[in-house]
Amino acid sequence: MYKLLSRKLLGERYRSVIKSIMIAGVIAGSLASLEKNLSIAQSILIMFAVFYSGPIVLQVLSSADNARCLKGLFAMPCNEKRTLWEYAAVIGIYTLFTKTILLFALICGFTKLTSIDIILMIAASFYAIIGGMIVYGLRKKMPVISTLIIAAGVLLAFLLPKGIMAIAGFAAADAVLLIIFSFLRLEYFRVTESNSVKVKPQKASGSFFLIPRYIIRYILSNKSYIISPLFITAFAVYFSYTAMKSGFNAGMGMALGLVSTNSPISVIVSSNRNLKSKLDVLPGRTKNFFVPYAAVVFFFYMLLYALFLAAYFLITRSVDYKTLVLAPFLAAECAVLVAVLESRFPITTWKTEPDLLRHPRKYIIPGIVMLEATALYFFAF
């Protein structure tokens, strides 16, 4: 059963794992060459590890595309306990070595991590993986336990002492989660294949207003689409604050690029294969869909930029006017580029939603924004 599950998520001969490790190595090496070492608190490292890995686990477990494969696998006669542990192992390898490792590479590129920091991040990621599976499995039967696990992750981040004691604390927490996980049943992880958006009858009001309503309903039906951008925005606030304290004035501009890195709305067409097939035969699809879509993306990014600037102002009591000038122009540029990419180059080769949400194509626009903002900070202002 492990081989069948791993072939779905990890690819033949662990190709996805090998590719991600190579990409992480390139990212870490490239960023380290910039010689920009920022200090980062232990609590922030733990929060990154827990609340980056956890949502990925939930996205994989609830993946409707993944459900089509698992429906057949879970229907086969098997040792349910063993299969559940094998499923957890595949989810853990997939999360840690294809997704979380990219976060580790990003952090290692900008900071100097000790061996204790690395072990602590791995222990925190393990907590997120097992905890995420428990949260998903008991979300309906015992929602209180799910809430306690999430709250415990936050408390561990801020209450544990530094160093070896923090590792011991997470090791104990991981052991407790493993005991709880051992009582779960395989049937708790069955997923329905349908994730379509329920559309209520609407009065005729023009396609320009119908498309935004559809996109908003689609986002609200996938709560992770809201959590992920908020997490990245929080990271951008920390990055810009630390960069400015270190004298790196272009940090605010780069932070705007970070805000646009992981916004699931930028792949909303690619994520819905039924929608893509309908758009292929829609007359005047640019005018009737992608122009309203670009408008929604613009306001979405402006909202994220506003949250970013508000959080930064609450921390520093000041905001650089350059960022206020750049924000609407960069949001408009992102909106146009997102609409063009989703119209002309939709992502089709993905297996689960986390693969789609972290596809290399998603980093083209943030990369452009970062380069432009950095260049403008250095040469134009």
What is this entry, summarized?
The chain has helices spanning 2-10, 15-32, 42-61, 64-75, 80-110, 115-137, 143-159, 164-181, 207-220, 224-245, 251-259, 273-280, 285-316, 321-344, 353-357, 364-380. It has 381 residues and is mainly alpha-helical. The N and C termini lie far apart (59 Å).
Task: Give a quick set of tags describing it.
381 residues, mainly alpha, 16 helices, globular
Description:
It is a single chain. The chain is globular and about 65 Å long. The model is unreliable at 194-206 (pLDDT under 50). Helices cover 73% and strands 0% of the residues. The N and C termini lie far apart (59 Å). It is mostly helical and 381 residues long. α1 (2-10) runs parallel beside α5 and α3 (42-61) packs across α5 (80-110).
Structural class comes to mainly alpha
The helix content is over 70%
Give the percentage of residues in beta strands: under 5%
Q: Provide a count of the helices.
A: 16
Secondary structure blueprint with pairings:
Layout (H helix, E strand, L loop, with lengths): L1 H9 L4 H18 L9 H20 L2 H12 L4 H31 L4 H23 L5 H17 L4 H18 L25 H14 L3 H22 L5 H9 L13 H8 L4 H32 L4 H24 L8 H5 L6 H17 L1
Helix pairs in contact: 1-5, 2-5, 3-5, 3-6, 3-7, 3-10, 5-6, 6-7, 6-8, 9-13, 10-11, 10-13, 11-16, 13-14, 14-16
